[in-house]
Write a structure and sequence with these properties.
InterPro entries: Choline_transptr-like. The chain crosses the membrane at residues 32-53, 88-107, 114-141, 147-166, 186-208, 281-303, 429-451, 463-494. Choline transporter. By secondary structure, this protein is mainly α. It has two domains: 2-104 and 190-217 and 282-518, no CATH class; 222-277, no CATH class. 75% of the residues lie in helices and 4% in strands. The protein has 19 helices and four strands. The chain has helices at 2-15, 20-24, 32-55, 67-85, 87-110, 112-140, 147-170, 172-188, 191-218, 251-257, 280-317, 328-339, 341-347, 350-364, 373-398, 402-415, 417-453, 457-502, 512-518; strands at residues 222-228, 235-237, 258-260, 271-277. Helix 3 crosses helix 13, helix 9 crosses helix 18 and helix 15 (373-398) crosses helix 16 (402-415). It is globular and about 105 Å long. The protein starts with a helix and ends with a helix.
Amino acid sequence: MNATSEKNSKAIVEYGSTNNISRDKKRTFTDIPSLIIFSIFFIFYIAIGIFAFCNGDATKVQWEANPEFERKMDFINNLLENMNDLRYVILSFVSFALLLSVLYIVILRWIPGFFVYTAIIIECAVLTIFIISIPIFFLALEGQYNLSKLVSGIVFIVLTSIKLYILKQVGTTVICEVIKESCRAILNFPSSILLSVFVYILEIFSVLNTLSIFSYLMTIQSNYKKVSMSSMDSCQCLPELMYDDGSECDEDVFKTMCKPVGGIGSCMISSCIAYLATPSYIYFFHVINLIFGLWLVTVIFYFGQMLLSGTFATWYWTTNKKSIGFTTVSRNAVTIMKYHLGTLAHGTSPWVIVSIIHSVYSTFKMSKFWRAPWTMLVCWWTIFCKAADNGMILSTIHGEKMSRSIQMATDLCYRNPLRFYIMNKTIEWLAIFMTLFVVSITLPITFGYIASQSNEPTWIYTFLIAIIICALLMIFPILILLSISINTIILCIFDDLKNNEETKEKRHHMNHKLEDLLVVK
């Protein structure tokens, strides 16, 4: 009995919930059919990659027949060669950008209000400018205005005003406290930073591997023979051969059965010629490679997200934070691999994405938006990503399947729509501020160093842009880490509030300041 109690106690520390039903219920085992399908696709993906690298022609990957592309490739190759000479310098600046990103999280831990109020001031300033400028432009143009631009400006004013009203309703103190709690969770697990970077590198490697397979498959061609008829020798073949101009042929049969008009000699100009063409099965390989390449990258991303969200949920639900062991991340990884690999495969599968798109299309009757396919693609992808994000987090916490987890997450967000909306907008602002923070410090230091090494403007600006791009790519995983932490903490808070409403036990796991702000006594 004691052993069982101890085991249940450990489970609560890992993904504890104050809800007794969720606490005592066993985790749903992984979605086996989706995992099997994913494994089959993975085997095909590996086999296609081996086939492409063994049979593709590396000398043709650069598409030398395209002069414009060749010039661009020469420029890129020269840039890469020069960057290779300064690889340690570039690595140092990129590492510096990564450290600045971590420093940004430390600053957020203590003074998030500075960034929140700065965002509010910017929003108010932009809103004021639009309110003043629209009537001025309207009067200055004397009625010769663009109606669509006027409507867009009014819509922007209305939406920004609504956003500021929601911000007032939620309260900046709540937002700042959620940010603080999220940053505490990150800093309590320093390995989460390295884990986020590692997962990001795996994603980049998967993308590059998929593109490499695509490039090598493009170079694979087979020898075919087709009929090339010329009117100059009036060559005729037996009708049953059906050797029309351009049809496939056999060279020996053509020489034997195809004669000039009159049947004497052999065709001199018309012939069965050889040519190179892409085999039809290569197109099938392209489809498998691109679909599974996207699927694999998505699975890697959400595996990292589930691992991180499980870790941050552990931080939230554990009352005594000091009792959290350093093996929490590794235990979460084992739990995810045991119970949730199939959930990952199912939740990120192409048919689930299509079903979500179909559901949204059918529910909201958005057929008129088909005239703007790119707009709808962005909307669908945004809806899928948000649903998948929240579903993965709840699946990690409660151990449910993907569909059930999305329903639970949606229910929590419906209970707290204003808080959910404004926290997502806050994440966007924090991402912008992090980018500005890192670039504003890295840019002048990088420029000063490069300028001291060379006086050639082209060389300076080329390397400056290259280093800044590398630095921005490197801070991206930290942005994702911060976003996952905030989303996890806010969903845990929603879950905590719901548990308190549904049970007589008036106990919260949120910190005392959040409890004072959110709980009605």
